[in-house]
Amino acid sequence: xxPNHKGRQPLFWALASNDNKTGVTIHYIDPGIDTGxxxxxxxxxxxxxxxxxxxxxxxxxxxxxxxxxALDLLEAGKAPRIPQDPNAGQKHLFPKLADRExxxxxxxxxx
Length: 111
Fold this sequence. Notes:
By secondary structure, the chain is of the alpha+beta class.
């Protein structure tokens, strides 16, 4: 959920960071990485037994509805532009082997 975990594999990083929630953000595109003004956000709670796969399935369902909501707002000319704090959150690259080892050592699973 922006501004946290900008960049590649945000759901992996939410689990690796032991976040208790993540989510889907629909935002405007700007020159930065996941830094555009927010249109719609939807939270997804993360359970202690959550797997990366189960979190992806939840995010697809929630994200589909969030996208439809954002499109309705844009079409009606009522889409907000909620600025993000440029200093908030972390930017991530694709997880490296050491990141995956830490992920598994923390008891997280892909499936």
